[in-house]
Amino acid sequence: MSYIVHSIVNVPPDKIDETISIYQNRSKLVDEYEGFVSFGLLQNEKRPSELTVQLVWESKEAYMKWVTSEAFQKVHDLEKNYPDQELASIVPKVQKYRVVAT
After folding, report:
1. Could you tell me which of 72, 40, 36 has the C-alpha nearest to residue 57?
2. What is the pLDDT of residues 32-66, one digit of tens each?
3. Confidence (pTM)
4. Is residue 82 within 8 Å of residue 9, measured between CB atoms?
C-alpha cells in the first residue's frame, strides 16, 4: 500500500500566486527518486491561502530513504535560501498517512 505525505502551509494572501508559481517551477528532484509516485499542490477552496503539498510514495521505506538523501537536503536548502524570506520562514504542518484501503 502507498504512503502519502502532506505538508500544509498558510501563506499571506498577497503571496498565494507567487507560492503557486514556485511549485509550478519546482526542481522536480523528488520525481526521479526511487519509490516516488506523484506530486500535487492542493489549494483549499474555502481558505485559498492554505496550500498542501501532497507526495505519494510506494512505501514508507521509500519516503524515509528520500528524507535522508542528499537530494532532499538540496531541495530544502533551496527553500531556505529563497529570496522572499517571509515565504522561506513558513514552517509547514506535516501529516503522514498509510493507505489502508483503495
Report:
1. 36
2. 999 999 999 999 999 999 999 999 999 999 999 99
3. 0.88
4. no
Q: Taking the chain, what is the end-to-end CA distance rounded to the nearest angstrom? A: 9
Task: Give the Cβ contact number of residue 33 at 10 Å.
Answer: 16
Is the CB of residue 22 less than 8 Å from the CB of residue 75?
A: no
* Residue with cell string 522561506: 88
Query: Whose CA is closest to 93, among 11, 28, 16?
Result: 11
The string over 36-64, giving b where at least 16 C-beta atoms fall within 10 Å of a residue's C-beta and e elsewhere, is beeeeeeeeeeeeebbbbebbbeebebbe
- Report how far residue 3's alpha carbon sits from residue 77's, in angstroms, rounded to the nearest whole number: 24
